[in-house]
Known about the structure:
By secondary structure, this protein is of the alpha+beta class. The protein contains 2 helices and 6 strands. The strands form 2 sheets. The protein has a 3-stranded mixed β-sheet, covered by helices on one side. The protein has a 3-stranded antiparallel β-sheet with strand order 4-3-5, with no helix packed on it. A hairpin with a 5-residue loop joins strand 3 (66-70) and strand 4.
Amino acid sequence: MHELAITESIVDAIVEKIGDGPVAAVRLEIGRLSGVVTDSIRFCFEIVAGGTGLEGARLDIDEPPGRAYCRNCRLEFTLDDPIMLCDCGSADLDVLAGRELRIISVEVR
């Protein structure tokens, strides 16, 4: 379960940046093509945040859809499936969005 390691890194990065002060909310952006299971992040967050200033903080996760550009038919389209194929059948794509994994904001109390 790599989500545990990802969540530990998120909590560590926040604590390193703002110290152990009380945090009210954390907003993450996890793209739908990132391969990260957001429900697992939510579960792990409660465990990993325990004993830190993030304990009890609300976790908000934005899940932007994937976007891709087909080099074959030159169509830009939304893509939410990790099996990346254009409607024309081509797999020759440039992924434009959907692989994000970042901390957007931290709200302190």
